[in-house]
Design brief:
Blueprint lengths: L2 H15 L5 H7 L5 H17 L5 E5 L2 E5 L5 H8 L8 H13 L2 E2 H8 L4 H9 L3 E6 L7 E5 L1 H6 L11 H12 L13 H13 L19
Antiparallel strand pairs: 1-2, 3-5, 4-5
Helix pairs in contact: 1-3, 5-7
């Protein structure tokens, strides 16, 4: 397939999907164009959209590619849609952060870190599809273990869990989340390359609940 035609088709597919779409699905929809060819075309499109300062960007999120509005346009989009960004309370943010960094993790382990009951919070996170039940731990009572979902990655604009921000950035993000009614969290820059080391540090010290905070509440606005 000719490259420009492929780019045009991919743009239509991403626009119509409204959610992250994997390379495999895009390849199949394009009459089995090789995945490497699809990925190359997407990279070229992403660069082109960014260089031309378009009102749409193409980003790799939650294991797929998605059309999204630039973060600097978030206020305008919200005015048009009369919508607020997805908002999570502090207990929800703290709990989902603990799960994200220490998954798979059980409810007693979460409660040990937070120091409070998390039954209602976990139920809410399950309803929002930000976490899911991943099975049972081989321990007395075989407690349920929890992990994050692709919806979690999409909401926070993460390609994968390695993109989690470092712990110092979590403090900024928590403050921004508290102001989610008036400003986009997207304006906070994260540094995925630091995430792995900080995640290891967080996992090694389970005596301090404050080490677990909140991943970026990405103010996603997609088609």
């Amino acid at each position: 397939m000719e490259e420009e035609r492929l780019k045009s088709i991919l743009a239509s597919l991403l626009f119509a999907a409204g959610e992250p779409v994997s390379i495999a699905r895009l390849s199949a929809a394009c009459d089995d164009v090789p995945r490497a060819t699809v990925q190359k075309a997407l990279a070229a499109m992403a660069a082109q959209y960014a260089n031309e300062n378009r009102g749409i960007v193409i980003e790799e999120v939650a294991g797929g590619f998605q059309m999204r509005t630039p973060k600097e346009h978030a206020d305008y989009v919200r005015k048009l849609l009369a919508a607020r960004p997805p908002r999570l309370s502090r207990p929800l943010m703290e709990t989902v952060a603990i799960i994200a960094y220490r998954q798979p993790i059980t409810r007693p382990e979460i409660e040990q870190l937070r120091g409070v009951d998390t039954g209602g919070v976990l139920e809410t996170l399950l309803e929002k599809r930000l976490v899911r039940i991943a099975g049972r731990k081989e321990a007395p009572g075989r407690p349920i273990i929890y992990e994050t979902t692709p919806e979690f990655l999409e909401l926070f604009g993460l390609k994968d869990l390695e993109g989690l921000p470092d712990l110092s950035e979590f403090r900024e993000i928590e403050r921004a989340v508290e102001q989610a009614n008036t400003g986009p969290v997207e304006s906070i820059e994260t540094h995925p390359e630091d995430g792995g080391a900080e995640a290891s540090a967080a996992t090694s010290d389970q005596s301090e609940p404050e080490t677990a905070s909140a991943p970026s509440d990405d103010d996603k606005t997609s088609n």
